[in-house]
Amino acid sequence: MKTAAEHDPAWVLREVLGPVVVLRLARPPVNALSPALAQALAQALRELADRQDCQAIVVAAQGRCFSAGADIHAFGHAAGDPHELPGQIETCPKPVVAALHGDTLGAGLELGLACRARVAREDTRLGLPEITLGLIPGAGGTQRLPRLIGADAARALMLSGQFLHAREALAVGLVDEVTPGDPVDVACALALRLAAGSWSRARPRGLPLGESLPVPKGRLPQPAAQVLEACLAAALERPLAEGLALEALGFAQCLHAPESRALRHAFAAERRSRQVPDLPAGLRPRTLERATVVGAGTMGHGIAICLAAAGIQVDLVDPDAAARGRALLAIENHHAQQLRRGRLQAQEASARTARVQAHAQLSCAADADLVVEAVYESMALKCALFEALDRVCRPGALLATNTSTLDVDRIAAATQRPEDVLGLHFFSPAPAMRLLEVVRGARTSPQALFDGLALARRLGKIPVVARVAPGFIGNRMVGPYGRQAERLLLEGATPQQVDRALVAFGFPMGPHSVGDLVGLDVGVRAAAEGGARGDPRDGAIARRLVALGRLGQKTGAGLYRYEAGSREPLADPQVEAIIREEARQLGVRRREIDEQEIVQRCLLALINEGAALLGEGVAARASDIDTVWIHGYGFPRWKGGPLHHADALGLTQVMEGLARCSRMSPHDAALWEPAPLLGELSRSGRSFADWDAQRA
Ligand code: NAD
């Protein structure tokens, strides 16, 4: 019974449904609550407050969701008073009811919290994820949520940053009604009952959130977590106005804190990495419905799992029958485990398992839209394989190599169609790791690159584009980082000292524990394949340990020793003796080394290499390098990635650090030579962020 509809040019649509007026946010796609949108809604509410013919108001939204939250670009800029709109809703003389659908997050949910009641469509997801950006809800959420659902549930929701589905939100008292249909209809009826004084909230408030939302056990962003606790305490003990004032102060404190800057940088960096500025507009993705994965080892079977999860039919090729058997079993086990953990339904688990077929021969690749090669890391083997693929595959198939270090251009040159060849560097374990380095060869066509990026998206991965260079982005930086970790051993530190220092910095594991996990033989073999004959100190300890059969966790001993069945690295006096002996033979003087030096040397090496490859154009942006290290190598997200960390330290400091390292170890002066780009930025008083901004 629509009586009138008028378009408000100021982004809020108004519909008059008898005595109820519906105000609809109309800033698709996600109705980000910018200051302008908030003002438009506030203006519309003011106009309705005194109108005799309006008895109640429903706030709803157009598009795919109610509101995904504040406009992240507006953070840190003068944005008006964020409490104004919720306060106005709360004190409006007419009852205001929220009609929610889709994502209702952050400031979007805070708007809803200020309403007298909330109706949600079944697909609604509600949450206050500010903590993941090192922030707290800043538009009254910390005060209104605990008042509505109780302190424990509010704490769990805000500290975890996780989302509730409509039905869970109903159970906890966050919404008052859930409907499969149009929430606006239900909200209008409820609003009229409120206006007539014939509705009150029946359900007990503050039902426990249960197991579904445990407060995270790991490290929480600071000072946000602490500020949040103080706000929660105020919500229980103080009047609303005082709590809101505390929230405003706390929000400002978090906004300017280094951790929030780093987390917001990481968030924006992840979204930016998918954009490749020089791709022509109007490309359409090619069909990728059938894939061949060549090599059924660790990576091959993991990649098969990823493809099958995206609905792609997979032929997994390996001449080794035992490898094929192991891979099929691992794939089945993976899906069984997902089923046990409640992440997959039984039907979907078996459909995914059935999507992967194993073969001994490459001939099945004739039907493939996509080939991903994951055989041993050998140039000769990969070139022979791509020659074969060129003969077998139909024109238009996308050909990808999962090489970690080898020259993709040489591999592409083994075919007559280098334009269809690219690198898709998955990380291990492939189903769990979200990073995908998409390697753009010199002759990779824009279409092939576009298809690689589209595939990454379909697989739920975070793609970062790299140019061809040894080790691309991530593994190239591992080189100097690992080299310092090793030099430190020769010079007097123990593996556990080095690992402890870098774990204290924020890495989940230190480089030596990682070495043992990956296998020391992998690095030794890669160095041999690279044919590099560098400094005799490089790789000396690993070569010696590998020669003794100490490959790492898989042999029960590497740089550490392991008790049977345990992955806990234990100090091993034998290793310390080996290191001392190596140092003696190499003529390295040993001394006491402290934690600060360990962190400084490893990080400076990392930053300098990042700057070098950025300057060479291997990565297009500093923020891409940060994304690679956060998602592929465990760099602490709350430090924003190596180059954001460098910016936070100040590039002058970084240059001074490099100079100090060079003075301390004149033998290694070449290693500490600042990358040209680093020198240039530091001299001109710019940061990596400035460099990115100038190229955007
Ligand atoms: P893996 O040793 O586990 O498996 C390699 C498989 O390739 C074996 O099953 C072998 O039988 C098979 N194979 C050998 N020749 C073949 C051929 N001609 N045709 C078909 N199959 C053949 O190795 P992996 O760790 O899975 O590594 C595979 C590739 O992925 C390498 O290029 C490696 O650098 C890269 N990679 C590895 C990791 C990692 O962490 N393991 C990470 C990223 C990339």
Quick structural gist:
It contains 28 helices and 18 strands.
Number of domains: 3
CATH fold type of the largest domain: 2-enoyl-CoA Hydratase, Chain A, domain 1
What is the name of the CATH superfamily of the largest domain? 2-enoyl-CoA Hydratase, Chain A, domain 1
The CATH class of the largest domain, by name, is: Alpha Beta
Mean pLDDT: 93
Structural class by helix and strand composition? alpha/beta
The best one-word shape is: globular
Uncertain runs: 1-8
**Which ligands appear in the coordinates?**
nicotinamide-adenine-dinucleotide
**Percentage of helical residues?**
40-55%
Largest sheet strand order: 13-12-11-14-15-16-17-18
Number of strands: 18
Which CATH-level-2 architecture of the largest domain?
A: Alpha-Beta Complex
Rg, Cα atoms, Å: 29 Å
Strand content: 5-15%
Task: Note the main sheet.
Answer: 8 strands, mixed
Determine the N-to-C terminus distance: 50 Å
3D architecture notes:
- The protein is globular and about 90 Å long.
- The longest helix is centred in the C-terminal third of the chain and has 21 residues.
- The two termini are 50 Å apart.
- Helices cover 47% and strands 12% of the residues.
- Helix 3 packs across helix 4, helix 4 packs across helix 5 and helix 23 packs across helix 26.
- The strands form three sheets. It has an eight-stranded mixed beta sheet, with helices on both faces. The chain has a seven-stranded mixed beta sheet with strand order 1-2-3-4-5-7-10, with helices on both faces. Strands 6-8-9 form a three-stranded mixed beta sheet.
- It has 696 residues and is an alpha/beta fold.
- A hairpin with an 8-residue loop joins strand 16 and strand 17.
- Bound molecules: nicotinamide-adenine-dinucleotide.
- Nicotinamide-adenine-dinucleotide binds next to helix 11 and helix 14.
